[in-house]
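From the shared-data thread, chain only:
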Amino acid sequence: MFGQTQTSYEFGPFRVDTRERQLLRDGEVVPLRPKVFDVLLLLVQNSGHILTKDDVMKHVWFDTAVEEGNIARNISTLRTALGEGPHEHRYIETIPWRGYRFVGKVQEVRAREAVPRLNSIAVMPIINVNRDPNREYVSDGITESLITSLAQLTNLRVTSRNSAFRYKGQQINTERAARELKVDALLMGRVSEMDDLLSISVELIDGRDDRHLWGSQYVRKPAELLPLLETIAREVAAKLGFVRSTESAQQIERRATDSNAAYLSYLKGRYYFNKLTPDGVQKGTEYFREAIKADPNYALAYAGLGDCHNYLAQRDDAKNAVLKALELDETLGEAHASLGFWLFLYEWDFHGAEREFERALLLSPNYAEAHHWYAIYLANLGRHDAADREARQAIELDPLSLLMNMTPALNHCLAREHDNAIEQLHKVLEMETNFMAARSVLGTVLVHKGLYVDAMAEYQKVLEMVKGAAVVEISVKAIMAQAYARWGKRAEAMKLLAEVISPGSASPYSVAGIYTALGDCDSAFEWLNKAYEQRDLQLVSLKVDPSFDGARSDPRFKKLMSAVGIP
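Structure, as tokens:
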């Protein structure tokens, strides 16, 4: 309905581009969700006139049945995007008991033709020329810092670190890499160290035709690394045509710490955390603490520490670190995303979690993990269309990440879209045939399609991969027991059930799924209540998990969902 007109609108520093369906501030995109943009456009097109809530509902949600509270939430999001404080009404006025009115001075303008330019970039892993493994954190840290700085420009799409680092140590074909990462440009570079000096050379390449766009070399002392990285990011952004205002320049130059010692410790922390091994994460924790000791006001170091604690399932420590990060820097989108996922999994505060996810995406729209976590949240609440949009956005930002590519498949599985789930899982397995999570989920989807022989073949492959890891083996056997029960092979299911219960390793939630498949609802709810007492994280999936379809009509199921607080 919206966006058919070729007229655009301007008010203050803002422009509503109806052709591209974008809100721009000083030429830079302010990210808005589709319905929020629709609300803005409706208000602007009716500037000076009162729109009742029914008017907004009729025009924006004409094809969907939603609660009236949706309007207030979208208006609140819109006010934040326009920079209005809690009690300010520079642009949107609330008319008590009636509706809303746009009070900003609006000027209609003709839509301008878009100027072709480079809209996306991947920062490829900076090469460590000295090949000293003990200094690898420097080259990796430079790469990650440039990614973070450029990602602050909300109208520039920057490939996530995870996808970019899949090229580490490889001879890069620029056109092929640009095609695989779906970007216009690549930033490549090398760093060497000699006589207490850093030599960094960088080159900007048009990935569409392998054309050299710009290059430069810098020689600095290690203590000058922070301002040097700001200089490089600023010059790259300028060559791409994205630094056009004071505001965007400030985004690029926003410095998290003035302490070079803290920064180098932070780089080491990220380097070890990104290994995603228990030892690596533990070592990352130590370096983040070193960074905090050097600069107690280093918000990013607290956010990194929170990531480590989350990975190690240290619930309270994770919360304290993330809250401290936000206390120091309320605009840190990554920390808002981490807090959202924490509230979702540990606190079962669903409304609070969504508020944090939306804040994170407003502040850091290039942060793939935020889209990924939000997609998982939405999928578990049964909002599958919205979950799919977030999952696809995560893939666009991090196209080579196995985890991001798994997200749409998980959503399809929970939505009972089994064929779509299988198609996506096969894409993931083409990327990495031994990706255990994809094999496991594929087995589950095949069970729900009644393809039990194929499902068991997938589970056997997973068992071979996890051989010797007792806790993981128990989890796999639990889902196999559920599969046998659905298949009608009760004896095999009971045998595996006895195996997973006797060591006490299987989660109560998984055991409840087995009993549900066996048709024993009383035992299923006995174990679900145990899961509730233990605050089993998997209970957030209760609303949509196909494992419990056989128990949904039982009044106890609705009561449990209410206790968990699932909307």
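The mean pLDDT is 88.
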